[in-house]
Every structure is written in structure tokens, then in C-alpha cells.
């Protein structure tokens, strides 16, 4: 199927979400949307934590689309955000698709940002910009999973571009920039690139210390030593990076890492979103 789109301006969408602690649980107190971005009603599968599912009703992102997501978690609130399925970036006839995300976590609050994978069709042109602001006393765990091409169908990302950049700020100070830039096949075989893998993922958690790094590295050594995955600690941000060929392999590795960090940083037992099991 030819997924090319004409060079016209696409969807202009914005979604604002504000979470506040009210009595015994976190509530979604502010929701403003423009264009095709929305959330389902909040779920409470565990005590106090608000689970939300982001929706993009068109089912995919095309050249010329501009999507903005702004999340604010107020002091004392606890939110977990995921998506019902993969986000697809379709082939473009020339324009780039832009998705920007600003995630703000106040003191005493926590945010878990766990979207399912982004799939970039061959010839897609995509730009992602994320900024995570964590106030002193705030907690954050989040990941991004990128799939270049459609490996299950044998489609390589031989043309197209991906420019992904995420900035992490702790108490007003930028401490980490996580970038992935791919132009066609140029990064697939590079030793400093994809090394022949179709997928790349990053999980970041903050604030973290040597104890969290040691625990994650021990988990990797015990269960995933044969896989291309590693962990580093940069100025209070724990970054776990991984390459793979399919979503199942990445999730089977990163979900246990998330569960470990959830217990250590947030004091919460593992509680995978229900949508992951469907």
C-alpha cells in the first residue's frame, strides 16, 4: 500500500493534561484539547495512581502534522501515561511530521511516561522534541521505543529521516540530551549507530544514584547479558539504552527494568497498564 501523502499542511493538534492530588488519589483536573489528540477516562488499577491512555484518533501521523503534548503533574500527584498501541509515522511526499512533548513534574510528584513504540514507515520524515522538567523532590521514569521500517514485513528504513531529541532538566538545570538521528540506511550498519538493528529504545529515570545504577546493571547481567543493552548514570539521570529487532524483545527487557526502578524510586509495586495485556 502506498502511504505517501501530498505536501499539504496536516493536523494541528494540542493536548494539555494537569494532574492533582485530591484526598486519597490523583485526579485529572485539567484537560484541554485541540484537534485529534485525546485521553480515555482515567483508570485506577492501583491505590492512588492515575493511569491515562493517550489517543490519536486518525491512527497515524503524516507529513505536515504537528502534535503537541503538555503534561503537568502537581505536587503530591502520581500519574502513569501510556498509549493503546503503536504510533505510526507514515511515508511523506516531502513535509516533516513534528511531535513535541513537554512533561513537568513538581516536588513530591511522580510521572511514568510509557508510550508504546513509534513505527516509522519507509520514507517517513519525522521530528520529535521532548523536554522533561523535574523539580527537586519530583520523580520520573519514562521511555521511548523507535522502530525504523517494518521489519516484520521485511521493509527497511532505506529512505526517510528521523530526528529525535529529548532533554532532561533537574531542578532547572539541563543534565542530559538523548538524541537519535537517522537518514535512510546511513545508521543501520554503523558501529555507532543501529548496528543492523531495526529498533532502538531509551529508558530514563530521575533522580537516580549509584545504588539504582548498580541494581539495574545487576539485573541486566543476570537476565539480559547477551542482549545489546546497557545502563549509564549522568548527573542524576539513569539512562538505559537498547537495540533490538522487535518490540517484544525490547519490552521483555525494559519492563523488568521499569518495575525495578518503580519499586526503588517511587516505592510502588509493579502494576503494568491493563492495555498492555490486550
UniProtKB/TrEMBL annotation:
For this UniProt record, the keywords arranged alphabetically read as follows:
Chaperone, Cytoplasm, Nickel insertion
Specify whether Cytoplasm is a keyword of the entry. Answer: yes
Q: Could you list the residue ranges that cross the membrane?
A: none
Give the source's domain of life in one word. Bacteria
User: Which GO-annotated molecular functions does the record name?
Assistant: nickel cation binding
Cytoplasm recorded as keyword: yes
Q: Which Pfam families match?
A: UreD (PF01774)
Which InterPro entries does the record cross-reference, listed alphabetically?
A: UreD (IPR002669)
Q: Name one GO cellular component term.
A: cytoplasm
Where in or outside the cell it occurs: the entry states: Cytoplasm
**What is its biological role?**
Required for maturation of urease via the functional incorporation of the urease nickel metallocenter.
The record describes its quaternary structure and partners as: UreD, UreF and UreG form a complex that acts as a GTP-hydrolysis-dependent molecular chaperone, activating the urease apoprotein by helping to assemble the nickel containing metallocenter of UreC. The UreE protein probably delivers the nickel.
What family is reported?
Belongs to the UreD family.
- The protein depicted here goes by the name Urease accessory protein UreD
**Whose protein is this, by species?**
Marinobacterium nitratireducens
Protein's gene: ureD
